């Protein structure tokens, strides 16, 4: 029920998460309440089933890939810190952050990190390259049974042809960034909080 | 030694005897007799006003306590946490593509790598806040109502507040709970006994008249057993014989609330145990529609029995909760179309509980029935409003699902609830794949740039 939520999260933890992710105090407590309400097993971590219980996520064609993004390599459980770290990618970029100290480590919600999140949705085996097969897999997830293999194959080929600049028949992260350099990533990959 | 104890014992016995007599007389005069005649002394409303004042004071104290410690209070937001734009798949993906290229959209390639942004964002939005899962757990309150079960800020409680809370605990568990349990047993006991007695009479006007009176009386006693303070609106629209009454479902108490103001034929599955005893005796006095467990699966049988019942104008209107499960009273979820296919006049009823006095929602995965009833009887009160909406019938060219949605929208609008298309069955089951397939179809249309008649 999320009732004891804010009392279980210590002030020090909230401060640490604030520093790491940039969320505000009230946003963190609100998301902690959400975390505990999803955590049906009440053991402080979320499993893949906990995410799949959300109907709107279950009907999202890329639902499974998005859920995967929360779980680090080979793990089945994600704790609140990991949860927040992934959600931080979708925090809107505020103007005052752009002029921050350039030598400080890049914030989780920078343009590059947002693009990296999207890149990892395609790159299933995390080898930093989107192969033709991986692209086909994602396309198949998004279109279901409505498009034939040949058509899908030609779409994939065309996409790789346009993006691939070094001729290795796959899309690296830098090529990915180049293709999307004009897209308004800051706005399209951001979720605005009401409070 | 014996002589010493005797007069003392006598005195204790006499005192106990007097207090019991006084107790039962008060009970009879102030609660049971009014229940029989359907009048009210107004004690409950006075009680409600007093409680509200105390709650406001308690909330102010907590806020003051938090400010002194310079901490931020946990404030539950009953509205959404994040901003969600209601744009469609097509619109959003077009917008993403437009921002990414200067080319004319018609000449643009069918697929763009940036299309994935739409799905990613929608997915993460639903992880942060979705419309469905929060309907299956109790609503969070903004002010504190002196029940520990609903407080999230209890390290800001001062001594005075703790004393008040302790007093409240004493009153609720020491005085109110025993009183209510006594009343509940009285109400149920009378129901079983009197309906069996009435059942012995031959069918006719006398039997119907008595059965009505008996049912109303016992339900009114049960209403007082819960200290339910109910406000009925628009009683001129009350359901009539041959109709079907539909209402939004929050708890089993809904039945008691509606049935204490009018007579209905209940629909449901026969249970074993105490519930079964009550059901079997009720049906002796007037025809309710009880199904055996095996019959429930047979939709045609269910529909036939219901339509037979509504066709007989001498029988009472049927009471049905089309959501099929308890929802937490912040929204109305999908109505099952079964009751809307029968073709009878539908009388919609909206029930809205005031959560400040006690949370009426039955979270059946967390609490069993007995546990739930005990929680209800140890809350302050159950305060709710009931609106009888004007009757609706299925219109020409409208199918059962559209009719059900129209009724649902009317109920949601009146009760101030969110109107959702999602199935209440999602409380326990998985969502159907057809919804995902719809999304995939929409996206495929964009890729192939076909017209909207794509099958």
Written description of the protein model:
The complex is a heterodimer of chains A (195) and B (455). Chain A has 195 residues and is an all-alpha fold. Chain A has two domains: 12-90, EF-hand (Recoverin, domain 1), CATH 1.10.238.10; 106-188, EF-hand (Recoverin, domain 1, Orthogonal Bundle), CATH 1.10.238. Chain A is built from 13 helices and two strands. Chain A has helices at residues 5-8, 11-21, 25-38, 48-52, 55-58, 63-70, 80-87, 95-98, 111-122, 132-143, 149-163, 173-179, 185-188, and strands at 129-130, 171-172. In chain A, strands 1-2 form a two-stranded antiparallel ribbon. The longest helix of chain A is centred in the last third of the chain and has 15 residues, at 149-163. The radius of gyration of chain A is 19 Å and the shape is globular. Chain A starts with a helix and ends in a 7-residue tail after the last helix. By secondary structure, chain B is α/β, with parallel strands linked by helices. Chain B has 13 helices and nine strands. In chain B, the strands form two sheets. Chain B has a seven-stranded mixed sheet, sandwiched between helices. In chain B, helix 5 (159-199) crosses helix 8. Chain B starts with a helix and ends in a 7-residue tail after the last helix. Classes of the chains: A mainly alpha (195), B alpha/beta (455). At the A-B interface, helix 1, helix 3, helix 5, helix 9 and helix 10 of A face helix 3, helix 4 and helix 13 of B.
